[in-house]
Write a structure and sequence with these properties.
With 303 residues, this protein is an alpha/beta fold. It has a six-stranded mixed beta sheet, sandwiched between helices. Strands 1-2 form a two-stranded antiparallel sheet. A hairpin with a 7-residue loop joins β7 and β8. The longest helix has 19 residues. Bound molecules: zinc ion (ZN) (2 copies).
């Protein structure tokens, strides 16, 4: 097969675009897909100060790598969760990535924030669902750092597979409020900075190819808590369907983006006000993370 652009030998075939590309043209294609998402949803401009939430996985690192190569002003934010070897490896990889590129990296260590407790210990003391506790804590520090360090936009590495699976889950459960909020870009409001997902037009496979072509090392360990997540089931079902219905995912997701306005009308049945302890926007008196802190300290006192 020949590259559709330069006619050199193709190294990759993208079924849902029916496109064969050489290595260089694939990388250009990848950056163009990011630029298209950025433009379609007015995510950010060249002047903006960007903060990329990096986990050590291939999505967030490919995003950060792309933004740096595309000439954007993008720093990284890593949250060390203290989940054994998984977090240790993630931290090594992210640190090496930022050092190699002389890019700015902000590190938050959960242990420093929760009186010496790691994420597994916090899950234990609060008797919470691991992915929920983790998601809550990560979102909290993403939002706080973006605000405190005055970044214009907070970016995450959610890809097309993630967004389509999340959409499917929200439809199965008719989470109208989530559907109303599921957007490639959320404006700055309610005490949160602007947020965006520049990888929405790229699949997991395309990101894996990009990281391979660019020698991006990523955490090959998977989180020991992630096995039970329902989102995997939705993702897997969509993959299965994609095998016989090529382009289903992108059609499904783009159809939603076109019709999002239908859900935006959904009433917000909550109002956000600053947490009494830390000031983070919350729908109750005390925010979820301060509640975790209180529970963690209480159990500490019992010992
Ligand atoms: Zn080519
Ligand atoms: Zn709080």
């Amino acid at each position: 097969m020949r590259c559709a652009v330069c006619k050199k030998k193709a190294e990759v075939y993208l079924p849902h675009h029916n496109l064969a590309l050489c290595r260089e043209d694939f990388i250009r294609f990848f950056h163009k897909r990011i630029k298209k998402a950025v433009d379609d949803f007015k995510m950010f401009s060249e002047e903006d100060k960007l903060l990329v939430a990096v986990s050590g996985g291939k999505d967030s690192l490919s995003l950060w790598d792309s933004l740096l190569k595309m000439g954007y002003n993008a720093d990284g934010l890593f949250i060390h969760l203290g989940i054994g070897d998984f977090s240790k490896r993630a931290f090594e990889i992210v640190k090496e990535f930022s050092e190699n590129r002389k890019a700015e990296l902000i590190i938050i260590n959960i242990k420093d924030e929760f009186g010496g407790k790691t994420l597994p210990e916090l899950v234990e003391t609060t008797k919470g669902v691991p992915c929920k506790v983790c998601g809550k804590i990560k979102r909290y520090f993403f939002d706080r750092i973006a605000l405190k360090e005055n970044y214009d936009v907070l970016l995450t590495g959610h890809n097309l597979d993630d967004e389509a699976a999340f959409l499917l889950g929200n439809i199965f459960n008719w989470n109208i409020e989530y559907l109303a909020k599921q957007s490639p870009a959320l404006p700055e409001e309610d005490g949160f900075k602007k947020k965006a997902k520049p990888l929405i037009y790229l699949t997991e496979r395309e990101i894996a190819i990009y990281s391979f072509f660019n020698n991006i090392k990523y955490n090959e360990l998977s989180c020991p808590f992630s096995k039970k997540a329902k989102s995997h089931l939705y993702k897997e079902s969509l993959h299965q369907m994609e095998l016989s219905l090529k382009g289903l995912r992108i059609k499904f997701y783009k159809g939603f983006l076109r019709n999002r306005k239908l859900f935006e009308k959904a009433e917000k049945n909550y109002t956000l006000k600053p947490c009494k302890i830390c000031g983070y926007p919350t729908s109750s008196e005390i925010c979820g993370v301060c509640k975790i802190k209180i529970k963690a300290e209480v159990s500490e006192g019992e010992k």
